[in-house]
Amino acid sequence: MACTEPSEGTVGRWMSRREFGMLVGTAAVAAPARLRAQPPASRPTRPLIKAQTFNHLAMAVTDVQRTADWYQKVFGMPVRFGEDASGTRIATLRVGDGPEFLELIPVSGGAKPGFAHLGFGVLNFNRAAADQALAARSLKGEWRTRTISGTGVAELFIRDPDDLHIQIQDTRYTAGGGALGDQWAQGWTVPAQGSVPSLGVRCVNHATFGSASKERVERFYIELFDLRLLSWDYRPSEPSKILGFVSDSPRSFIAPGQGRVGISHYCLGVDSFDRGRVVKRLTDLGVPVRPAGDDRKACCGAGIVYSAGETAFLADPDGISVQITDANYCAGTGPIGVIPAI
Questions:
Q1: Residue 10's Cα: distance from chain center in Å?
Q2: Using omega within 30 degrees of 0 as the cis cutoff, is the peptide bond preceding 99 cis?
């Protein structure tokens, strides 16, 4: 039976075309937020190590001082220097207002520079709860105690299905002393402002890493850390899940299962990203930027939904790939990828 559309302005149980359009538009915007706020019934009931923040990212570099100087010049990051358990000098660079940070450690044993581990922040971190969550999944963690100023800092390390190291600590952790690693005897050293202002960053936006089994590694992060689907990143024939710590500003997430096993790059988020402005600032600082590409294609025969101007890529002194994008970027749609593709 054919349906007759009501005319504009009809009242009662029918609504106008305009009202219907407004309702659909509102639902399209609101639905992803509601879906993220309400965990599906299929979510596991076993105890979790609920990750709240992308607390830090550690990198092994050939020269800690040189790399710290570079990050200070390019991004204006405050720095603290300290020592690890073996007495080796390391650097902690604050991202934005903190407590999130980058950690620089020296390469050892003839290894190549690269990513050492990811750090996740957990509210009210404690050993008993973490051990319970691991035991419920027959997983093993490695507990380490780092002594600073006579105080032992308990740190938990877990390996994901592809042997990627993840450090778990409290959301307040900054690689310092005290029970939660958030105490320092010295303050941050702020870089002197040069003739060209540094490019200030607000957050660690994401890290992208490949896996031997995309589905298995996605399940691992969802079921153990309670990360939520924030968006999709569509690659040819292989969409990958964007798993978020934070769904609002500034966003932070991981993008597992893309490409060769291991971390390919990490990304720093800035406010009001504009590629032209960012590239000019970096060029003025003497930092080469990779030409804009179009490696994030649309999927399923759809039109182009990703813009070549949504990010910028550069390399640190050891060639480690650093991506710059908007603090609200989620590998979604729109001119700078901030509209979730779900």
A1: 49
A2: yes
Residue 4 exposed, middle or buried by CB count within 10 Å (0-12, 13-18, 19+)? exposed
Q: For residue 247, what pLDDT is reported?
A: 87
CB 313, CB 265: distance < 8 Å: yes
Take residue 115 and report the two structure tokens written for it: 């990513």
Question: CB within 8 A of 97, min separation 6: which ones?
Answer: none
List the beta bridge partners of residue 209. Answer: 256, 263
What's the pLDDT tens digit per position in 266-295? 999 999 999 999 999 999 999 999 988 755
- Is it true that the peptide bond before 250 is cis, omega within 30 degrees of 0? yes
- Which stretches of 72-227 are assigned E, i.e. beta strand? 79-83, 89-94, 101-106, 114-122, 142-148, 151-159, 165-170, 203-210
* Alpha helix stretches (DSSP H) within the chain: 17-37, 64-75, 127-135, 214-225, 275-284
- Which amino acid does the sequence have at 325? T
Say which DSSP state 322 is in. Answer: E
pLDDT digit string, tens, across residues 172-215: 999 988 888 998 888 999 988 888 899 999 999 999 999 998 89
> Who has greater pLDDT, 305 or 316?
316
Structural domains in the chain plus CATH codes: 51-170 (3.10.180.10), 203-326 (3.10.180.10)
What's phi and psi for 244, nearest 5 deg?
-100, 140
Q: Strand 165-170 relative to strand 114-122: parallel, antiparallel, unpaired?
A: parallel
